[in-house]
Every structure is written in C-alpha cells, then in structure tokens.
C-alpha cells in the first residue's frame, strides 16, 4: 500500500493566510451553478454512477449491530437490484468503501469476504475518540491499531479541535504523525477537520496544511455530528490547501466531504468543483470520496429516473 509520509513541520506554510469568505462563496457559485444547469440527462447519469463509485457508505449509529453492517456491505457491493440494473453494471458497480466504528470492522470484513468483495471495497473505521477527538492520545493510537487488526484498510481519525482553536499547530502535527505511524503502510489515513468546530476558514486552511504535512492521505471535512458539516465554500478552502501542498511538495492528497451530501445534485456540485479546480485526475477513489449514509438512496432514485430518459 502506497501511503503519504510525513514531512518536517514548516510553520512558514501557515503565515500570512487570509481568506475572504464572500470571495470564496462567489467562486463556488461561478464554478458550479451554471455548469450544473448545462448537464444533459446522459451526463447526469454518468455523474450519478461516478458519485456512487466514490462513496464511503457509512453507518455510525449507537445501535449498529452485526446485522446492520451486513446489510450495509451487501448494499455497498450491490447497490441496485439485479432486475433493474444494466447487466453490464451489475456486480461491477459498487461503492468505494464502507465506514463503521472500530468495533464493527470485523463484521464488515466477514460480510465483504462472504461477498467476494474485500479487494474491491475498502473498510474504513472512524477512530481516535470519534467524534470529539478528546480522548487520551495513547487510547486513540490503540484504537487505530485495533481497527487495523480487525481488517480496516482506511482509518478516519478526528483531530482535537481545541488544538486548532488554540493555534497549537506543532502539537496537532505531532499527534497526527503518531497516528500516521500507527497506521504504517497497512491503512490509509483520512484526517477529519471537524470544520464546524474550527472557528474560522483560516483555521480550516491551516489545519488542512498541518494534516497533510503530518502524513494524511486524505483531509476530510466533518464527522457528520457537528452543527455545520460539508459545505462547498469550506470545500473550496480545503481544495486551495491541497493545491498549495501539491505545489510545494508534488504530493497529491485526497479530499472527503462528509455530512450534508444527501442528494445527487449535492454530489454533482462537488464533483464539478473538483474537476474545475484540482482536475479530473482527482475524481478517483484514491483522491476523492463522499462520506454519506443517505446519499445512496437518492443515487438509486436518480439512476432509475435518468436511465429511462437516456434510453
């Protein structure tokens, strides 16, 4: 497994950062609104299937059981009923991953193994004291190791937002580096910013830069538990951080919006924004994901509607 390696902490990347929110919002509107309206039914159908292939199908409820996870995995592997699916797509179209709590990773692994999908669908585990990130660091590191031992191939960590609010960037860097080392080369590391609790867009940008310096393979907007989750303006700020990091290091880092992406229209706006900023090369499971629990419902609905229009 190819993973991002940390680079030395460089505070100069965090200096003289200024973000004009109104300008960001205007840029989002210019990047997405008109282009969405120009999409034909055939193009929207392609975007719909693309969104499906980039989704981390998620269940993070307090009442999750083995049965819940088994159903989740089956739906991730076979999102559309065979009788209503293009025969060329059935069995070949699936989500990028399933995302569960560490205690349910073993259930997900067994379910995907029985379906013959362990090589096709990744198993992501939220870890490190999700969703608060306020647990003692040793316990957070143990949680990562436990999830990997159970079969997780991706670890979605959550940062301690108090470090962001205090601008304690060196401590944030050191903690994420230790999490990177706990993952080793056995799991990709996706770092959740918790953007709704970071205070400002400037903090989101700086936290994103620190996470990438510390070895994150993805930066992720939210836990889905905050009052404010994935929005296009905050996504654009994180995209600008990814672009700057790529300019400085040549490393391509992924982006994962999570929380609030519920419809195909929402997803298409994100996909178009990625294509217009980072480029089509980022629209792969290796560099872009949606974290969602309800998006697949609308994907299924729109797939049937658009398929009838295209025929």
Brief account:
Helices cover 47% and strands 10% of the residues. The protein is an alpha/beta fold.
Tally the helices: what do you get? 11
Total strand segments: 8
Q: What order do the SSEs take from the amino end to the carboxyl end, as H and E? A: HHEHEHEHEHHEHEHEHEH
Radius of gyration: 19 Å
Helix/strand-derived category reads alpha/beta
The portion of residues forming beta strands comes to: 5-15%
The major sheet is characterized as: 8 strands, parallel
Question: Strand arrangement, largest sheet?
Answer: 7-6-5-4-3-2-1-8
C-alpha geometry: globular
Distance between the termini: 41 Å
Low-confidence stretches: none
Helix content: 40-55%
Average per-residue pLDDT, rounded, comes to: 95
Features:
311 residues; alpha/beta; eight-stranded parallel sheet; 11 helices; 8 strands; 47% helix
Characterization of the model:
The chain is an alpha/beta fold. The chain has helices at 21-37, 41-53, 66-77, 105-114, 137-150, 161-165, 169-183, 201-213, 232-249, 264-277, 295-310; strands spanning 55-58, 97-100, 122-126, 154-158, 188-192, 218-220, 254-256, 290-292. The chain has an 8-stranded parallel β-sheet. Helix 8 (201-213) runs parallel beside helix 9 (232-249). The longest helix has 18 residues, at 232-249. It starts with 20 loop residues before the first helix and ends with a helix. The mean pLDDT is 95.
